[in-house]
Write a structure and sequence with these properties.
Elements lengths: L35 H6 L6 E7 L2 E11 L3 E3 L3 E7 L2 E8 L13 E3 L6 E9 L4 E4 L3 E18 L4 E3 L1 H4 L4
Parallel strand pairs: 1-10
Antiparallel strand pairs: 1-2, 2-9, 3-6, 4-8, 4-9, 5-7, 5-9
């Protein structure tokens, strides 16, 4: 048995290599490949670009820079920081600002300033994950550009750019 030495290389918004599909015995046209750092490098701050989808569930990539608007959702979401030093501030929304349709998919913008009890904030760095509870307002804050991946459902704020972000051949 031959030992193989692997080296893990972490990407960042400032330094990443675009990978690609390496088909071994198939056609590369049967696959799609995208890179969250490349997507964030070309995105507006807090634009939610879909880069993975399984039925209603999506992975969204977001460039974190400055303060985001306040978002909320009728379902839980997860945020995973891929690059940067990012704060997430939480407010438990009162009934007047919660998502009226419990079946609504995806994040929506909170209208006006969030009203309700402040729940605190989290500071996340590379590899840290946070739960964004349903009917809670959340705001990202980042002094430097960073990258966040959101596990959520496809919604009104989800941006699809498949032709621009995927390698397909």
């Amino acid at each position: 048995m031959t030992a193989v030495a692997y080296q893990t290389k972490f990407g960042s918004l400032d330094r990443y290599e675009k990978g690609g599909v390496q088909a071994i015995s198939d056609d590369v046209k049967n696959y799609a490949f995208s890179n969250c750092f490349e997507i964030a490098s070309r995105s507006q701050p807090y634009e939610r670009v879909v880069f993975g989808q399984n039925q209603i569930y999506v992975l969204e990539c977001m460039r974190a820079e400055g303060q985001s608007p306040w978002f909320t959702c009728a379902h839980d979401e997860f945020a995973l920081v891929m690059d940067g030093d990012i704060e997430i501030h939480l407010v438990k929304l009162g009934a007047a600002q919660t998502v009226p349709d419990a079946e609504k998919n995806g994040a929506i913008l909170v209208e006006g300033a969030p009203q309700g009890a402040r729940m605190g904030w989290m500071r996340l760095r590379r590899g840290h994950q946070a739960l964004l509870p349903k009917n809670t307002a959340y705001q990202f804050r980042s002094a430097q550009p960073g990258v966040v991946i959101l596990q959520t459902c496809k919604g009104d704020l989800s941006v699809e750019r498949w032709a621009q972000i995927c390698q397909t051949a």
